[in-house]
Design a protein that fits this description.
It is built from 4 helices and 3 strands. It is α+β, with helices and mostly antiparallel strands. The protein has a domain at about 1-55: YefM-like domain (YefM-like fold, 3-Layer(aba) Sandwich), CATH 3.40.1620.
Length: about 80
């Protein structure tokens, strides 16, 4: 991943975009601090489709037996 200063990214934006399209994202810095990442649209789409852990849990097909008892006690389980 390339690191590039904001003013350089502005001056060479077309080249920075071409690199991102070819799989090389760029970290854009301002005053030496990372501020943004430029990556291809396809990579952004791929990453934005990854569900959060919370969403995965909410969509899990749970049965009442899968959850702990409300009183905090131990449930008998047959093996």
């Amino acid at each position: 991943m390339q690191e590039i200063q904001l003013r350089d990214a502005k001056a060479t934006l077309s080249a920075v975009i071409d690199r991102a399209r070819h799989g090389e994202p760029s970290v854009i810095t301002r005053h030496g601090r990372p501020e943004a990442v430029l990556l291809s649209y396809e990579e952004w789409q791929r990453l934005s489709q990854v569900p959060s852990f919370g969403r995965m849990l909410m969509s899990a097909p749970l049965e009442a037996e899968d959850l702990p008892p409300r009183d905090g006690g131990v449930r008998d389980v047959e093996f």
